[in-house]
Write the structure tokens for this entry.
Amino acid sequence: MTSIAQAKHMAKRLRAHYATHNLTISHSAALEQVADQLGYKDWNTAAAALDDTPAVTAVSFERCIAILRIFDEAKAREFYCDFLGFSIEFEHRFAPDLPLYLGIERAGLKVHLSEHHGDASPGTTLFVPTLNIHALRDELQAKRYGYGRPELVEQGWGQVLEVHDPFGNRIRFCEG
């Protein structure tokens, strides 16, 4: 199905074609001609009927959400929610006694945590470009977490703040 954007592009091309022959038509006249070519009474009728979602012409990706393996729900909540400040987006279990799949989010960073055996391998590292890494370091230091008090490390590509979860996964926050 033709989209509104495609029809407008057709009208623009039609005007350009006429211009190469020293003919000038208005944009609205070109839209009317395109509507006629598409089988509509007029542009208003065409615009109402045409799909207004843009046509997808190339592959694109919205975002990547990492899945990290966890083994203990209480430790995961303590580390990711209490210490790192993530909030829970959703929780899923197929039944009350089955493994947890948990979606967490903080400031646009989304991570999924899974107790399911096949979802991820322990020891994964996430690299997270970060703004205002000093404030994050100060916030984490102030919590006096018993299993880690991360410090900034200067690297060739920027400042890195690395945290290790209770399951062997690492998150490298970096500002460069």
